Amino acid sequence: MVDLTEAFARRAIHYARKGDWDPLIKYLENPNLKITGEVRKLLTLIVKGELKRPKHRVATAQKAQRYIAMVERFSQLKEKGASTKIAVMDVAKEFNVSAQTVFNARREYLDVWNRRSDI
After folding, report:
1. Of 4, 56, 71, 104, which sits most exposed with the smallest number of CB within 10 A?
2. Is 35 found in the same domain as 66?
């Protein structure tokens, strides 16, 4: 079984290094989670100014969750027998996004979704 503190720490570190500090802030605000050595190192880099947010658009945890939800819905439609094109169009309409956004979500997260039972 995975230690929740470690799992939350890895997630917070992953997104903080990409520039999305919200998961790190939520991690630090949670009194039930101890500060791991990796989080301590990351905080040191931030305070020293060695780790800064990137100037480009940041991939957020919220975006990842939305993309995973799209992939989940796409997989459900495919399991019901829908063609890829129909499934993509239905998901795009349901999430109010372009078909290209659904294709991007599939490219980035379909393998993660397919491995969900391994986690």
Report:
1. 56
2. no
Instruction: Answer whether 0.70 is exceeded by the pTM.
Output: no
- pLDDT tens, the chain, 119 aa long: 456 788 888 888 888 888 888 889 999 999 988 899 999 999 999 999 998 877 776 667 788 889 889 999 998 999 999 999 999 999 999 999 999 999 988 888 777 666 654 44
Nearest-angstrom CA–CA distance, 91 and 89: 6
Sign of the CA dihedral running 85, 69, 6, 118: negative
Question: How many domains in the chain?
Answer: 2
